[in-house]
Design goal:
By secondary structure, the chain is mainly alpha-helical. The chain has ten helices and no strands.
């Protein structure tokens, strides 16, 4: 039967069964959400009903230019992300591959992950102003503090066996980098980049709160909150979740194109 073995530990399920369970889970969550508000367990001033949230989308679209502001935030997200990758990956390879740089920057890299970027918004305003460039630079820096140490770590994780195997073929330094380190590191770093998409949206909201007149989905959130339109706030959060989900699926699609060997064992399940 379709639902047989659902309580078996780590038993894989068919795609059809998975979709049915996902849809059912969404209905359960919406039902619980509505019941909590309907029976006044939480005031609707603090938690709007799901129907109030859905109803606010029309106003967001017609009066608040939801589509335009979402597109603006996605643009900032993509540009900031590409800038962070352009900085983190080459720099991470230099630091990770060469002992002199690895030892020189080991301690700063370890400390970098604990840097509270939200506390540095004032610094970025002083450096870059309050417009798009500041937001892009802030987002890129916020992603870099996570991505750069990860790239260095992934280089250290490459098995020495592969390096020695290529060396036995009389390969010089550059072939070792291109044939061993780049393929091995990129296949893992791509997963790390995909995970960091979720974090990047947190910093988008922070950056867009600096100058709400420029627009963006983050500024919409601040304005709606100041107006006590909690239904709009939740609706905007749903949009961010949807955009993040679509981005995640795009990354998964690209991952399958660039690194198909990672999915060879899952072909039968799909």
């Amino acid at each position: 039967m379709m639902f047989q073995g659902l309580f078996t530990l780590r038993k894989p399920v068919t795609p059809t069964t998975s979709r049915i369970i996902v849809i059912f889970g969404i209905f359960v969550l919406v039902f619980i959400w509505d019941a909590v508000v309907r029976f006044h367990i939480i005031s609707d001033g603090l938690l709007p009903s799901p129907f109030a949230v859905l109803g606010s989308f029309q106003e967001l679209h017609e009066r608040d230019a939801l589509v335009r502001n979402t597109a603006y935030s996605v643009k900032l997200n993509v540009i900031g992300y590409l800038l962070a990758i352009a900085v983190s990956v080459p720099l991470g390879f230099v630091i990770g591959l060469f002992p002199i740089f690895r030892e020189m920057f080991r301690t700063p890299l370890e400390a970098l992950r604990f840097l509270p970027m939200t506390a540095l918004t004032g610094v970025f305003i002083a450096w870059f102003g309050i417009f798009d460039n500041m937001k892009i630079q802030f987002l890129a820096a916020s992603i870099t503090v996570y991505l750069l140490p990860v790239v260095v770590q992934r280089i250290q994780e490459v098995s020495e066996v592969y390096v020695q195997t290529v060396r036995t073929l009389s390969a010089s330094r550059w072939p070792i980098i291109t044939k061993v380190f780049i393929p091995a590191v990129f296949s893992k770093v791509f997963d790390d980049i995909r995970v960091l998409v979720a974090i990047s949206w947190t910093y988008i909201i922070v950056a867009e709160g600096v100058n709400s007149s420029s627009g963006g989905i983050g500024s919409m959130t601040y304005i709606a909150a100041r107006q006590s339109r909690i239904d709009k706030v939740f609706a905007i959060l749903l949009v961010i979740i949807l955009v993040g989900y679509v981005q995640d699926k795009i990354f998964m699609y690209l991952d399958k194109i660039f690194f198909p060997y990672k999915y060879e064992g899952n072909e039968d399940e799909e």
